[in-house]
Amino acid sequence: MNGFPFTYETEVRFRDLDAMRHVNNATFVTYLESARLGWWLDVTRRDGLEALDLILARTEIDYRAPAFFGEAVRVGVRCVSVRRSSFALEMRVEEGASGRLLAEARKVCVYYDFKAQRSQPIPAPIRALLVAQNPGLAKE
Predict the structure, then answer these.
(1) What is the C-alpha separation between 120 and 138, in angstroms, rounded?
(2) How far, in Å, are 81, 83, 132 from residue 140 at the CA level?
(3) Count of domains in the chain?
(4) The domain that contains 131 carries what CATH number?
(5) pLDDT tens-digit readout, 15-30
């Protein structure tokens, strides 16, 4: 996906469908969350549940077209802003074979200390990894 440095792919399963025989809107949230967590582990070069030191603060989704059983779903992820303890992601969901736009989303994530139960500043090494994906972020 052009302009998205990370891509997550999955296939529409029968359980993803609703009574209208297309992917239920709530299932798109699952696709987006899988992509967000995959992106985080990839960008921070870590793995395991301990590496998931962020929480989701906001999700916005614009649904553009339905997805159907057996189709491939591809989710592109890019970081578009970094603040003291949060960052924003833009995501694009496409049907894999045709590139048909299915949804667009924006998420705000917060770097989080689960022991202290509060946000914390994004450490400089992780900030550098986020900026390396999108050099325009260094200007903020």
Answers:
(1) 20
(2) 8, 8, 13
(3) 1
(4) 3.10.129.10
(5) 999 999 999 999 999 9
Q: Which domain holds residue 57?
A: 6-139
Model pLDDT, residue 138: 60
In 3D, which of 111, 51, 43 has the Cα closest to residue 78? Answer: 43
Asked if 28 and 75 touch (Cβ cutoff 8 Å), the reply is no
User: How confident is the model at residue 1, as a pLDDT?
Assistant: 86
Whole-angstrom distance, CA of residue 89 vs CA of residue 134:
11
Dist CA 77 CA 88 (whole Å): 10
Give me the pLDDT at residue 128, please.
Answer: 94
Distance, CA of 36 to CA of 30 (rounded, Å): 10
